[in-house]
TrEMBL record, chains A, B:
Belongs to the FPP/GGPP synthase family. Keywords: Magnesium, Metal-binding, Transferase. This is Polyprenyl synthetase family protein. It comes from Asaia spathodeae. PROSITE patterns: POLYPRENYL_SYNTHASE_1.
């Protein structure tokens, strides 16, 4: 992971000073490096042995993180966010223009890293995931402010914007270890289900967490009129007055300071956080089940624990 | 070229309706398809023979256009443009968010097209060009409103934002025809120099052309405080009063309705359009010279004519 962090910093270099400056801001902001960790863990699970000669896993893990960082930069512009992981977001510090363009640079850089790796299979996986992410983001935009969005469409959105890259990050681990299609598919399933669980919990936290823990403002999703499961569940289970409330705040976007506490109370009343977490748990269990074809090992146990932990983030 | 247009439309398809909708807007807006034409012409010049089995040139030409279209979508967001090729720009019709995200989709799609082609060499060329374009755009942003920008830095900006993709489009033509490094380099030089000439002329037209012909508003660059050669040349050759004028309109951005006619008069007085065109002509001549290693042929003559025509767009 240290080698991967070094690679990330090294590959952000550019003769154009603003690029490493903005890159340093992103690196300083930290982030969990969850996606590159998935690539490294999956490779290890598949018996991949790194060596001085074989450092493919490092470049590919960095590549996965670059794709993720590029989409974060563009997301923050699209969502007009001002906080990211508890710090001022890059668009708030450097402006939207810089975020769009440096995002493009990181995206291009990720493809250079893939090309340097040289596996057409890896490129097909990661370029398809990149297209799916963009489709998920566009679909999310299209569902914004629309409470008639079916839950299936919401699941399609989070599959695109989150689960697709989790799946690709894991699958790439099997590819560098040169394992069977069956093992690739198992790791893809692990990543997909883990990503779904992760995003469901993230969406629950937006109506449940305390800002300090989350590193983002509670209620951001509501303010943006974003359609997530906590809102859909509370809306669908609500009585007439509750539905009128949700229609006003989410569809018309007319919001006052008292709306967030009221929304949290309605979500609590209708058990909508629990509904969301229950769904997340089903995905986490499917993720764990997908690992059953691999023999038990410390790394396998770690990946199982990661899936369990994902769901336990919300109390 | 028709096959390439069909490929462009086909590869814009997505289950997310907004993507083909925005794609149709871009296709309807037309555009000269200059960059895919360069790929097709370069391949032909190198003796590439298309066949029912061999359609690589079509996919790669579409790929080059996708990269270009993605950067246009993001440019228009960054520049807050409202017109593109004489029609409402995509961001004006669909919003900035859609333009950012569909740009990302097209960029990802271009990498899928490259992966489908399967040549690591092509991928290295096009992914490096994509990174260089983003660097050029960031550098352009960093020079905005700054009249102390050296002409060399301006040339670096237009190399990044325009010439790099022209060069890559041409070089890819030599690669699909499996020609020598010398021929690849010659086509790269042709593309680079043509791209420089093209952008210089484009920047001259922003202070010279009539809006109907240009399909964009004259004076856009001035309104945005963009640093281009016509302005740099007029500023550097100007007397004290002229320099004060340029500092006000470009650096502070304080502009009135009378400023554009006055700016055009100063540019005329200092021969700054001519300075710009003279530079463009030197690049166009270098582009033509780069083709001298190829035997004479109708396609070579067409590429020579294209370079000459580029400079003759301004009277």
């Amino acid at each position: 992971m240290e080698a991967c962090n070094r690679e990330i910093v090294a590959r952000m270099q550019s003769p154009v000073p603003l690029i490493p400056q903005l890159g340093a801001h992103l690196v300083a902001a930290g982030g969990k490096r969850l996606r590159p960790l998935l690539t490294l863990a999956s490779a290890r699970l598949c018996g991949y042995v790194p060596s001085a000669q074989n450092q493919r896993h490092v470049g590919l893990a960095a590549c996965v993180e670059f794709i993720h960082t590029a989409t974060l930069l563009h997301d923050d512009v699209v969502d007009e966010s001002t906080l990211r992981r508890g710090l001022a977001s890059a668009n708030a510090v450097f402006g939207n223009k810089a975020s769009v363009l440096v995002g493009d640079f990181l995206f291009a850089r990720s493809f250079q890293l893939m090309t340097a790796d040289g596996s057409l299979k890896v490129m097909a996986i990661l370029s398809a995931a990149s297209a799916t992410i963009a489709e998920g983001e566009v679909l999310q935009m299209a569902t914004q402010n629309d409470l008639s969005t079916p839950i299936e469409k919401y699941l399609e959105v989070i599959h695109g914007k989150t689960a697709a890259l989790f799946a690709a990050a894991c699958r790439v681990g099997a590819v560098v270890a040169d394992r069977s299609e069956q093992e690739e598919a198992a790791l893809d399933a692990y990543g997909t289900n883990l990503g779904m669980a992760f995003q469901l919990v993230d969406d629950a936290l937006d109506y449940a967490a305390d800002q300090q823990v989350l590193g983002k403002t509670v209620g951001d999703d509501m303010r943006e009129g974003k359609i997530t499961l906590p809102v859909l569940a509370a809306f669908q289970a609500g009585d007439e007055a509750e539905r009128a409330f949700w229609l006003r705040v989410i569809e018309t976007g007319e919001q006052t300071d008292e709306d967030l506490p009221h929304a949290l109370a309605l979500i609590e009343k209708r058990g909508a956080i629990q509904t969301t977490i229950d769904r997340a748990r089903v995905y986490a269990e499917a993720a764990i089940e997908a690992l059953s074809i691999f023999p038990d090992s410390p790394i396998r146990q770690l990946m199982i624990d990661a899936a369990s932990y994902t769901v336990s983030r919300v109390n």
